[in-house]
Amino acid sequence: MPVVIVKCPKCGHKFAVEVPREQPKGWGAHYAEKIQKLSPLHVEILEVLAEKGPMPKSRIGGILAERGRRVSGNSLSGRLSELAGLGYVECEYARVKLYDAKTMKFRFVRKPVWKITELGRAKVEEYPKETV
Questions:
Q1: pLDDT at 15
Q2: 1 in Cβ contact with 19 (< 8 Å)
Q3: How many CB atoms lie within 10 A of CB 52?
Q4: At the top level of CATH, which class does the domain 23-131 belong to?
């Protein structure tokens, strides 16, 4: 759990408090901070985003398939979520619209686009291409 430093408004004493992670959907996997080493698929996703620029998940999957790596949509979503939790990629959120008012279902107006962050660019440069 993340630790937050809290200052008492009366006495001014500072102390650390563990708080549960409260992140909205799409902010990344909650367990990402426990990932110590990136998998070859993580690195390949970062390379694709570094080379080709921002793109939707389906295009990332297509490029990986062209490179000979077949990845299911759920697996790709999981890896992108882990990379987002580590701060290596981020998702550009599009507008959403109410799809069905009765059931309160929403849909993206356009597909979310994933892009690599500066932290992600630095991380992908740490990994030599031969190891992937």
A1: 82
A2: yes
A3: 12
A4: mainly alpha
pTM: 0.70
Beta-strand pair 113-116/89-92: antiparallel
d(CA 1, CA 46): 26
Residue 24 confidence class, pLDDT cut points 50, 70, 90: low
Tell me: the pLDDT tens digits for 98-118?
778 888 777 766 778 899 999
- In the chain, what are the domain boundaries? 23-131
Q: How many residues does the chain have?
A: 132
Structure tokens at 91: 């998702």
Q: What CA–CA distance (Å, rounded) separates 57 from 77?
A: 8
